[in-house]
Amino acid sequence: MDPGAGKNGPNGPDGTPGAAGTGRGILSNPTRRTLRAGEIPSTMIECVHAEQCGGCPLIGMDYAQQLTTKRARVVSAIVHYPALELLYTRQVVPGDQIVGYRGRAKLIVSPTGGIGLYGRSGNHDVIDIPNCRVLAPALAEVTTILRGLIASPPPEARGLLLPYDPHGGGVLRAIDLREVHMPGTTSLPETTTTAQGNRVGVLLTFVLQRDRVPSRDELKEAGRALRALLPRVVGIAANLHEADAPQILGPETMVLDGVPHAEDRIGPTYHVASFGSFVQVHRGQASRVHALITREIASLDMQLLIDETGTNRRQPKVLDLYGGSGAISIALSHAKNIVTMVESFAPAVQNARAAAEAQGLGKLDARVGDAADVVNSLLANNEKFDAVVMNPPRRGVSPAAREAIARLGAPLCIYVSCDPDTLARDLDHFSRLGYTSSELIPIDMIPLTEEVETVAVLKRAPPAQPRVIYEDDDVIVVEKGPHEPVENQPEYLGSLMQRCLRLPGVSNLKVVNKLDTGTSGLCIFARNEVARQLWTTALATSGRLIYLVAAKGVTPTKGAIARDLREGGRSYMARTRYRRLAVASGHSILRVIPDGHRPHQIRRHLAAIGHPVLGDERYGHVPTNRYFEEKHGLDRSFVHLIRIEIVHPRTGAKLLIESTLPGDLRASLERATGSSVIKFLEQKHALGENRASSMLPGEPASAPLPPPRPLDRGGSQPAIGPMPTDLAPPPPSYPPDSLAEPMSYASPDSFASPPSYASPPGYAQPPSYAPPGGLPSPTITEAPTEHVPELDESPRTIRHAIVSDDD
């Protein structure tokens, strides 16, 4: 570990070693040492910028506490997925350097010429960080020189170095620095040689405001002048930032001077680094990840790798998805694996091929394209692989790619993730596709921050059993996961029906309520055709399906949308009622009840009034969906069937069956709004519980439930005992909405009155929607000790047809 330098960073402002430590457990000698096996450094790191800079949020903790915090983050990401409840999270692998380690940095340039990061205040003020503790020495050296050049720019480089001011002139918005450890002979000074004999250089990218960029000739002249003043820099490029783009780097980069790319060694191999390309910022930890992947593939079952003769062990065939510049692929090729790499960025693929060939590793089979598309083409050609490696960006593996990977059927999959939330979401889906993992291996890739890299090793297993919420002699009610059809469809590997048929004592199921593939929640299966007809009729006459939905923008407090929906050339009457439960980051959390069950009814109705469902690919708002996928991991429609209310067709009992909000939607909501909205909705009992309750006609609300029948059903809650079959189904003596009469369900009375909802701290409530006077208000039937929410139709009724593209 590099235990740190003095308060002035790895080196002082003049390039000399930092001052001696000041005690209190703060190590300040810049020498490095290697941790003993299992040793976790117990040290505090001081930084003069820590109070204002937001770059190292955990710097105030002892390093051992930081690792504990990161492990807790991984554990909390998987806790809301029943299929992952047996997944063990190891202790976090510590970094051998926790300061001076960062080999890639994107730094903002302030209008006054400071170079740093946005501050902790959240107001986008740039904090200049000349004594940053985490920058690698080469990057710290270059930024120190650049500060002086920006303050007093040479005339030939002024057009490139003038800081961007939104209210004035200037063009320079940010700099992107990449450290490279180059094998072989270079023109760099001998002092830059590492212990392994590599020469250390820097690729420097200036991020410029596109609409203020000088001519290409002027840029190239400035690049040549600056490179002469920056001896550590081996190449300079300019990247053009789009005016309103949230990302620092824009899509266009031009090389101004020096090399267009450079060799970069990690462990025993090197790959080709280019301007702006992805790299793990901690070189030592990246090498550990490569070694772990190589070791797992080497431990594949020998029986799987016997060649056609039956006597010799063949080389494993590995598919490396999201391959980037080829660092993992080249490391695996060096370990005698046959590798096919997939990457969507064509220049990175070309660099990977060139690096593999230059190192005598043969011609790397590197393909350009989307991961899902390439895997599907491999399937079409009947290609087989022994292992699949996935190292996706923060948004995770796409649903289509997960489905295609599972169809490929490799005995081993290794998932390298930089985001615990999207990792948990994807592992949950993989569990339904026939892959499971026994443990997670967190790695501290970015010390002093909240970020954590996690490796999961997945192996083939039977698909996870669905959780059973309720069952009797007629039906079984289970939780459906997202990205899963209810019944078999040729484009999907499996279905909820298939998983249910694996439950003990279950056969010949019939669907009662069919959910969209992207929708999660409660699904009723009948055990025979007679039961299906009974329950379908009961659902239509006395039942309600209640959904939790997130919609774009702020809807009225409550409303009803009555519109004809066209299907197959015919129009069908349909009505959807909703009530807004909360406003979260400018969007609405709704409780929705569709009257009728037309395909896509909720999604089509909400889209028609200008509030499409978040994440809805078909009817939704594309930019908003893209933002929520990139930032918050939402990769499907935010629709969950959270509650079914129905009168049992044989006993006349009032049934209430609930399913809690699934982990992927919960994580997206929490990431978008913080914990306050989640806590607010939990206090209102709006997120559901995994349970069922029943009340026979005339039975007091406080009567106990029938004794549960314990079942081993996918981690289910105890189910209610079988209903008597000798009771004739009495006709309902009340309309469907009177299911709000007393039953065993605890919910605060504030559900009955939207104006009583207070917004969580930090969220402004929009002006309430006031219905015209004289119209009926929602009614609630009060139980002795509890209240059940009612969603009555509001006066806001809109009528006209919706025609979708396929109608």
Ranges with pLDDT <50 over ≥5 residues? 1-31, 185-191, 701-712, 715-807
Rough outline: globular
CATH class of the domain at 468-700 and 717-751 and 785-798: Alpha Beta
The percent range for strand residues is 15-25%
Please tell me about this protein's structure.
This protein has 16 helices and 31 strands. With 807 residues, it is of the alpha+beta class. Among the domains are: 102-116 and 126-270, OB fold (Dihydrolipoamide Acetyltransferase, E2P) (Beta Barrel), CATH 2.40.50; 468-700 and 717-751 and 785-798, 2-Layer Sandwich (Pseudouridine synthase), CATH 3.30.2350. The strands form five sheets. Strands 18, 19, 20, 21, 22, 23, 24, 25, 26, 27, 28 and 31 form a twelve-stranded mixed β-sheet that branches. Strands 1-16-17-15-14-11-12-13 form an eight-stranded mixed β-sheet, sandwiched between helices. The protein has a seven-stranded mixed β-sheet with strand order 4-3-2-5-6-7-8. β2 (104-109) and β3 form a beta hairpin. α10 (420-433) packs antiparallel against α15 (663-673). The longest helix is centred in the first third of the chain and has 16 residues, at 63-78. Residues 1-31, 691-807 are annotated as: Disordered.
